[in-house]
Every structure is written in C-alpha cells, then in structure tokens.
Task: inverse folding
C-alpha cells in the first residue's frame, strides 16, 4: 500500500492513515487508558528523519503487523477490527506540517475528536487522531482538503481488499 514514490527512499514528509474500526471496541491505549473506538479515524504523523524516521520508515512501521506496541496508534492498529483503508502522504521537511494537517482535519465539517492527546503527547495539539463522520470516500476528501489548506500536494493510495 505504500506509494512507489516513497517505497525505497529517504523521503521526508507528512502522512495520514484513514483507519476503519469495524466493531465497537474498547482498547487500552498506554497511559491514556481504556478508550472506545468505532467508525472512521484519521491519524496524522510525520517522517522527517532518516531510516526508520523517514516517511517510508514511519508508514512501513504502521502497516507492519509485527512490531512492539510503542506509540498510541500501535494500540489501535493491533486491534483485529481496525483496518487501514487509505494512506495520504505529502513531501515536506517541515515537521510542524503534521500539526497543521491534523488541525485542518479537526477544523473541517463532520469531525469528532475522540481522544485528547492521542498521538500528540510531544506537541500542543489537541489530538492527531480524529473521528470522521460519513463514508470512507467523504473522509478521504476531508483529509485531501486539509493537506491542500496546509499548502501541501497530497498523494492518496486506497487499500484494495484481497479475495
């Protein structure tokens, strides 16, 4: 699912995972405690370093099933009913674009912020995980608009279901 343009590069940028939680789930998320999840979520992060902290490194880690549970998003993604539906990325070397994109998603119509400080314990943002109302297609459009409002050129990849 990782776009070819970032597959084997040290590209720097920002990304958003569109995650669907198919069932109503209670998940323990580190120090945040037990939290309820259901529906569509946009999780925004950045990869502005090298190697595992590059855009490819971050996205590859999130899409990998075998990893230590370290970050807030790891707890959500290890849930059996959670599925990454789409990935949006954009090149940038500016780490703060992660916060700007998250804020722009949060400021759009049809949002709910389910968890304060989810994915944002290292910044002053309210949250980097935003619950989105509507269909996957509508949620993806909301994310793409947030990137454009941030002055970024987004690339989207949707996950296809295997038969």
Result:
């Amino acid at each position: 699912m990782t776009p070819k343009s970032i597959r084997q590069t040290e590209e720097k940028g920002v990304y958003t995972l569109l995650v669907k939680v198919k069932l109503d789930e209670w998940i323990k998320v580190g120090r945040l405690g037990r939290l309820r999840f259901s529906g569509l979520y946009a999780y925004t992060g950045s990869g502005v370093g090298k190697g595992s902290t590059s855009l490819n490194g971050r996205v590859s880690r999130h899409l990998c099933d075998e990893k230590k549970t370290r970050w807030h998003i790891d707890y959500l993604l290890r849930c059996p009913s959670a599925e990454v539906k789409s990935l949006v990325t954009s090149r940038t070397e500016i780490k703060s674009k992660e916060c700007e994109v998250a804020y722009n998603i949060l400021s759009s119509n049809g949002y709910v912020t389910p968890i304060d400080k989810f994915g944002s314990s290292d910044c002053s943002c309210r949250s980097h995980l935003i619950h989105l109302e509507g269909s996957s297609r509508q949620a993806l459009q909301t994310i793409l608009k947030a990137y454009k409002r941030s002055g970024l050129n987004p690339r989207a990849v949707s996950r296809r279901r295997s038969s």
